[in-house]
Write a structure and sequence with these properties.
Elements: E1 10-18, H1 24-31, E2 40-42, E3 51-53, E4 57-64, E5 67-73, H2 81-87, E6 93-99, H3 106-116, E7 125-130, H4 139-148, E8 155-157, H5 163-188
Parallel strand pairs: 1-5, 1-6, 6-7, 7-8
Antiparallel strand pairs: 2-3, 4-5
């Protein structure tokens, strides 16, 4: 299990998941304030791009002197799913990136989300559609299809290469988590 750095008092783990080529590594490089740990290597199979992630990509964002978010990107290929088990413990939030024009079925999306999120009422999920500059996406249709499968997450068209676009996903997770925590406090009062 991956744990927080000792010098950080509040450490949150944000996992970035999705299929090959959706922009997971790119998003982490875009958001991270530290030099990222990239685990991209030359692909041994034709996956539509020369490099693929074979381990855990890592970056970090500080929210204060002793408050940080760890950015964990996992491989999109199922053959590396053993790595998912190392990352999925103690997740604070989840970003699912989907490549427009190559989206998996709602059933496959639900299967992937369920691997990482045990309780959707405690772990926020935000969906980013990437590559929409190349292939249009029907966000409303996707939202309806996922909602029918029990996934009611905000969906945005994003460019993982652009800080403002990637930050939108991060801010949404932060807002959702704050709402979850506020709701819990109100329930306990």
């Amino acid at each position: 299990m991956l744990t927080q750095p000792e010098e950080i008092a509040v450490y949150r783990k944000l996992v970035v998941i999705g299929d090959v080529g959706a922009g997971k590594s790119t998003m982490i490089r875009t958001l991270s304030e530290i030099e990222t740990v990239d685990t991209d290597v030359a692909s041994s199979k034709n996956i539509g791009k020369p490099l693929t992630t074979v381990g855990i990509d890592y970056g970090r964002i500080s929210l204060g002197e002793d408050d940080a978010i760890g950015l964990y990107g996992v491989p999109g290929q199922k053959r590396y799913s053993f790595i998912w088990d190392m990352v999925k413990e103690d997740i604070w939030g989840c970003v699912l990136l989907l490549k427009s024009g190559q989206m998996p079925s709602p059933e496959k999306i639900l299967e992937l989300v369920n691997i990482f999120i045990d309780d959707p009422n405690k772990t926020p999920l935000v969906i980013g559609l990437t590559h929409t500059d190349i292939q249009d996406a029907n966000i409303g249709g996707l939202h309806a299809a996922l909602k029918a499968k029990g996934i009611n997450a905000p969906i945005y068209s994003v460019d993982a290469r652009k800080k403002q676009s990637s930050t939108l996903l991060l801010h949404t997770v932060l807002s959702m988590q704050n709402a979850f925590e506020y709701s819990q406090k109100q329930t306990l009062s």
